[in-house]
Amino acid sequence: MNLRRVETSTWIYLAISFLLIFIPFIVTGRSMQFIFIQIFIFAIFAMSYDILLGFTGIISFGHVMFFGIGAYSTAVTLGRMDATIGSFVLGAIIALVIAAIVSLIVGALTLRLKSHFYAMLTLALAGLFLVLAEKWRSVTGGNDGFTFSLPEFFRDSETMYWFSLLSMVLIFFGLRRFTRSPFGRVLMAIRENENRTESLGFQVTYYKVLASVVAGVVASFAGVLYALSLRFVNTAVFATDLTIDVLLMTIIGGVGTLIGPIVGAGLVEFAHHWLSGLADVHWIFERWIILYGIVYVLVVIFFPLGIVGTIQSKFMNRPVRALRTNRKSDGKKENRKGA
Amino acid sequence: MTAILETKDLSIAFGGHVAVNGVTVEIPEKKFTSIIGPNGAGKTTFFNLLSGQLSPTNGSIYFKGEDITKVSTTKRARMGIGRSFQITNVFPNLTVLENVRLAVQSKNKVRYNIFSHFKHYPGFEKRSLELLDIVFLKEKANAIAASLAHGEKRKLEIAMLLALETEILLLDEPTAGMSVEEVPAIMDVIRNIKDEGNRTIVLIEHKMDMIMGLSDEVLVLYHGELIAKGTPAEIVENETVQAAYLGGGV
Amino acid sequence: MELFISLVINGLATGMLIFLLAAGLTLIFGLMSVLNFAHGGLFIWGAYTGVWVFQMTNSFTLGIVAAILIGLLLGLVTERLVIRPVYGNHMQQILITLGFMLVLQELIKVAFGPDQKAVFPPDFLAGSFMVGDIVLIKYRLFIIAVGILVFVIASLILKKSRIGLIVRAGVMDKEMVQALGINIKLVFMLVFMTGAGLAALSGILHAVYSGVIYAEMGLEFSILAFIVVVIGGMGSFPGSLFAAILVGLAQAFMAYYVPALSLAVNMLLMTIVLIFRPQGLFQVKG
Amino acid sequence: GDDGEAASGDQDVVKVGVLISGTGALETYGLQTQRGFELGIEYGTDGTNEVAGKKIEYIFEDTETDPTVARQKALKLLEEDEVDFLVGSSSSGDTLAVTPLAEEYETIMVVEPAAADSITGAEYNDYVFRTARNSSQDAKAAAVAVAGEGVKIATLAPDYSFGHDGAKAFIEAAEELGAELVLEEYADQAATDFTANIQKIIEAKPDYLFVVWAGANTPWNQIADMRLDEQGIKVTTGVADIATLPSMTPLVGMEGFTLYYHDLPDNEVNDWLVEKHMEEHDSPPDLFTAGGMSSALAIIEALKQTDGDTDGAKLIETMEGMSFETPKGTMTFRPEDHQALQEMYSVTLEESDEFDYPVPVLKEVLTPEQTAPPIMNQ
Amino acid sequence: MENLLELKKVEAFVQHYHILHDISFEVPKGEVTVLLGRNGAGKTTTLRTIMGLNRVSEGSISFKGESIVGRTTFDIANSGIGYVPEDQGIFGGLTVGENLRVAMKKEDEKTTERLEWILELFPDLKKFWKKEGGQLSGGQKQMLSIARAYVNENDLLLIDEPSKGLAPIMVDKVTESIQQMKEQTTIVLVEQNFMMASQIGTRFYIIDDGVTVHSGAMDELKEDKQSMKKYLGIS
Ligand SMILES: Nc1ncnc2c1ncn2[C@@H]1O[C@H](COP(=O)(O)OP(=O)(O)OP(=O)(O)O)[C@@H](O)[C@H]1O
Ligand SMILES: Nc1ncnc2c1ncn2[C@@H]1O[C@H](COP(=O)(O)OP(=O)(O)OP(=O)(O)O)[C@@H](O)[C@H]1O
Ligand SMILES: [Mg+2]
Ligand SMILES: [Mg+2]
């Protein structure tokens, strides 16, 4: 990982982003563009998850709560106000602010709770948000949800495409810088060995909370885009399934790589689209989730680093990190916790 | 001679077992103090209390006259108390270089910078490599820490501790499991630090020749209590110490 | 007063049902430190197979036996294919078992069709009787009895045998246990199978209780089981029992007195417990 | 996509895109709609697949019961297939994610079988017509079946929109008929223990308990176990699809309603449907099969009246107030909110010799006027 | 003399790293064979390879005349080999007593006798019988690890750096215990403490970079200043 290589990869990513700009001229159908938009949105969502899972080593089962917060904030604001850019911006700001506050509080709980306990807590919190969305029907329309209209600017599918693409690219480079900053290095250290990080003089608390806030805010922004792309929102944006989806994307793509979640999002969305489209060919494709599940299990066993992670470790001689924790020491850590 | 670290009646009990029992001691500044004592005497626990990994059930700790009994591990590390661990405690999945670089980064107080690239600090890498060189680990700079042999991990520990450039170095059996050939070399590293004369070193060791060769003062812990204190020569002569610790043969 | 008693009994029954569901999970987590999110998959397979045999043969006992057998069998398969590569790594366990859960759930639809299926209790457990003004539903009493039985047996086994020790040691350092001459793989497999058998057993019992089975119930109920295990303290049998009953009672009473919150009661309970007692109510060693 | 007929791009084709839940929790509903729709086209065109000189082509798409997929599939239908009509979908959420597209693309969408009131209420747009009954119609049917002057009623419903909508509408309708509400009870939709709720109901001592229920965990067993009948409380509810009938065994004797059961409606269309369905699928048509057929018949009737013109505005004009024959008798799209008024059936649940589950037996046909729901889109 | 254990041209991998290149040595019954070498030479890897914890790619390992290459670890252990790993391998969550109980293959009188002998040797273990292994001090862990290998009757003991982290007085005790053990059992010892090694060892092998480069009788080595300097850096 020397300076020069970083630069080449940056150029490659920029080039790919540049090429993606022209997709709408080739793929003119809104439905295909819609798939791309979804990929960009879920890539953003998955990258935010990667910050937690891959870089800080925090498993959350409730990451969808921030996504939902983003989606509902936007939808409610646009639904209640005129469909103008102004209300969109307001909605987005509300989304980000709420997400920041919630993630600050939730993140602070990582101090008390370790690994699966934290995971379960976030699951519960996301569940509570789901209940809130179902119950607060005057605002959310209950689980059927509601539709709203978009500002003129976003109505065009191409605009939406470019806007999502731009967001994804900016967020990618932003997060990449974030993870490669001295701060990001410390996050990785925390993932590896929290106690040790502390005794090196880093205040672990702040790092974890800030990572959680960054992840929450980015996820919320993905939710904002999601609501825009769908022009509709219902309680599904708080469903645990979404967390699972985004988890799968991150894992399949490769945790701790940032580019992995993007690849994962693309792959999962396209695989979904094509496999389910094959339902006429053979009934098994109607049950495409089986294939999906099997592929996923295989990936975890044989390519625990995900696609990007495996490529990096095989061909670029990068040190293998991420999920491959030393099994023995992992077990021992458990002991100490029990003590 | 001023004391940089001071404990007053320091005790800690685990359940019913008192591991450190009313230890009152002054660690003189810029001197080399060694702690010896049988296995389970409470040496590591004493270090854990000094560095903040554990908090005492009783008593207090002073650093440069300031009460730090309630100060967190992190803060103490920043104030200048650095330690190495008896059980190797490194970042297993990061490279050796990255392990040290994290310590260097902390030393240079680059902590919350989220905007610049970590490569913008080439000095860190250079410094890390220097340190690795000192502990004979330079060739392994790009190896994953988990793949190191036991002795190599001990060296990495030391490099990380040195990187922090803390005023006090608490070394917990730094040479345990290190090969006969390299013990003297590591001793030299430690001696050099000592000779620079501006650090306080506290060492836990079972290798008496090291203790003898390096220490200005030796503390003896026994069943959690401080039972003797003095120059190496005095301690070796001390009969209680001989019976409880040294035994006959070696 | 009748109301109170009736709520208590129903709460207990629900609690026992949840306990049965959580018991397998507790065993697998408590001993092997494996977070098995495919638990729900084993649960539905137990439910569907058990119900199928029950309806074919008209014998509830055979249904139960079939459920347990399929549980053991699937446990074997799951352990060998899915769990074995990821012992000791919680993160991977969560991920891989979630994926496998999807497979198991979807396979149910292939094997039994996507429709929900109605289930009725066997005649000797059907209906209810009245004691004074209190309605006692037979099947619930049956559940309470089975729950207690399972609890007692499991506790005895764990207390008396060295197996618990071996498994716990195996989780901490697998290589070392093997170096002590223990075939830890076999031991793990057997424990996992037992856990899976328990999951499947609770599947059939639950199916008859709720009167209906459907493929998605696996995930739904495994989340509930996890909640209980967390509240009770991961890996503690008494903890799970206590937590399950707590949840059961809370559900019953909340549904009566504060229905608005009944949707959220499990989640709330877990949140509160996690915040104030992160290790769960019953702390266990190891 | 599932092309019903070979696609050809020429002018004399009318294309219909049908969104169904082909996978996911509602996939059985999706299948019913699909079969009904196919049969509807066959019946409506006398097997020619042609109306007003135009060939009808239809494409089924699976929404997977996911609004995102629903929207994507709808876009595909509208843009790539350039459909002239949309039909669907099995879930209200999916439907709501699509209805704005109908307006945007000025394409008529026939909603079937999604029941949320808001589709023809708060979220109404001119291009949406619904052949499915909405939740309020269900509730009215239930009210008509049991309510009367001085009758005490209680409700039990799952605690989410569907349950609340249903209970509210029922209470309104029942109170209008002179009934008195004594308890409105909501239970967690995922709960398995309803005894606390039932306990409360017993204490409130209503004459009738109206249960709105959908989803798998049913309260029927427990209602029977808690011996409501012995306490003089009669249960009433909607009878749903055949798959759920076995679980209603404990409710035998109950008076309730249904929107469709294959031997209830007495008309030519239904006779044909039952016969044909038996022939092709070896089973009787189910709850939403009739609905799927109705949606096809509505489209055919509209095309007949416009003589094959698929212009949105023209179709709206035509379809508002349009009546058409369906397996459920004559349906009429109410001009105000485009909701089809339709027959509902008041039934008694009885044991059957033929099946090992109870079946609904007709008590009374409720006319479209009797069950007309309030207009909610203003 | 009969060789209890024999390694011939063993090559082994740790993950995909080729660590052992050519390890050959013989362990005659009833003797203490010492493996020496600097850090990272491959001593630990050699012991782990014997225990079946690493993949052998070439060469043979035979124990009691039978090849044990490719056999599972527990099988090898059950054929009569006890192992004290370098990192002690204490089950941190189990108590001292439980740690020993897991190790005990039988609970007969003989075992009880041995246990008593061990507890006499290491009174700390008795004192902390109910304490969790993870909470022991470094030296106590070392004692427990040794004790665990002693409770069973084994034909061969593989002991990796037993003196590490022990107080001088304990080093003496452990030395003494090994002296006693060697009456009944054959021992392979990896040790950095040359004093100790030379006291108990009968025969030595020096490993360097995964290759056995030198061997001989322990007594000779003490005299052989040149080899000492060349391979061990001791002068
Ligand atoms: N976390 C803990 N819980 C309970 N007891 C503990 C804990 N940590 C240490 N002890 C006990 O305190 C005593 C002192 O342990 P400590 O690790 O300080 O010894 P030590 O002097 O460093 O010994 P060694 O030379 O063997 O490393 C031991 O008896 C140990 O069992
Ligand atoms: N998991 C691993 N991955 C890669 N290399 C490894 C791994 N384990 C050990 N090694 C390498 O194998 C070599 C031999 O290691 P081993 O632990 O056998 O040495 P040793 O002779 O026991 O040293 P020490 O005296 O320090 O304990 C070392 O260079 C080490 O870096
Ligand atoms: Mg110590
Ligand atoms: Mg070694």
Automatic annotation (TrEMBL), chain A:
Q: What InterPro entries does the entry give? A: ABC_transp_permease (IPR001851), LivM-like (IPR043428)
Q: Where are the transmembrane segments?
A: 12-45, 51-73, 85-109, 115-133, 160-178, 209-230, 242-268, 288-311
Keyword field contains Nucleotide-binding: no
The positions making up the signal sequence are none
Where does the protein principally reside?
membrane
Keywords tagged on the record:
Cell membrane, Membrane, Transmembrane, Transmembrane helix
Coiled coil regions, renumbered to chain: none
Pfam families in the record, alphabetically?
A: BPD_transp_2
Keyword set includes DNA-binding: no
**Where is this protein found?**
Cell membrane
The source's domain of life comes to: Bacteria
Annotated membrane topology: Multi-pass membrane protein
PANTHER family cross-referenced by the UniProt entry: ABC TRANSPORTER ATP-BINDING PROTEIN, HIGH-AFFINITY BRANCHED-CHAIN AMINO ACID TRANSPORT SYSTEM PERMEASE
Tell me the protein's name.
Answer: Branched-chain amino acid ABC transporter permease
Which organism encodes this protein? Answer: Oceanobacillus luteolus
Query: What does the record give as the organism's lineage?
Result: Bacteria, Bacillati, Bacillota, Bacilli, Bacillales
UniProtKB/TrEMBL annotation, chain B:
Q: Which InterPro entries match?
A: AAA+_ATPase (IPR003593), ABC_AA/LPS_Transport (IPR051120), ABC_transporter-like_ATP-bd (IPR003439), ABC_transporter-like_CS (IPR017871), BCA_ABC_TP_C (IPR032823), P-loop_NTPase (IPR027417)
GO MF: ATP binding
- What's in the keyword line of the UniProt record? ATP-binding, Nucleotide-binding, Transport
- What Pfam families has UniProt attached to this entry? ABC_tran, BCA_ABC_TP_C
Residues covered by the ABC transporter domain: 5-248
Q: Indicate what this protein is called per its UniProt record.
A: ABC transporter ATP-binding protein
Source organism of the structure: Oceanobacillus luteolus
Organism lineage: Bacteria, Bacillati, Bacillota, Bacilli, Bacillales
From TrEMBL, chain C:
A Pfam family the protein falls into: BPD_transp_2
Domain of life of the organism in this record?
Answer: Bacteria
Cellular compartment(s): Cell membrane
Q: Which UniProt keywords apply?
A: Amino-acid transport, Cell membrane, Membrane, Transmembrane, Transmembrane helix, Transport
> What membrane topology was assigned to this protein in its record?
Multi-pass membrane protein
Transmembrane region(s): 6-27, 34-54, 60-82, 94-112, 139-158, 186-209, 221-249, 256-276
Q: Which family, according to UniProt?
A: Belongs to the binding-protein-dependent transport system permease family. LivHM subfamily.
Specify the protein name. Answer: Branched-chain amino acid ABC transporter permease
Organism of this sequence: Oceanobacillus luteolus
From TrEMBL, chain E:
Quote the InterPro entries the UniProt record gives: AAA+_ATPase (IPR003593), ABC_transporter-like_ATP-bd (IPR003439), ABC_transporter-like_CS (IPR017871), BCAA_Transport_ATP-bd_LivF (IPR052156), P-loop_NTPase (IPR027417)
> What GO molecular functions are on record for this protein?
ATP binding
Its recorded name reads ABC transporter ATP-binding protein
Q: Does the keyword Acetylation apply?
A: no
Tell me which residues make up the ABC transporter domain.
5-234
Instruction: State the source organism's domain of life.
Output: Bacteria
Sorted UniProt keywords: Amino-acid transport, ATP-binding, Nucleotide-binding, Transport
Identify its protein family.
Belongs to the ABC transporter superfamily.
The organism encoding this protein is Oceanobacillus luteolus
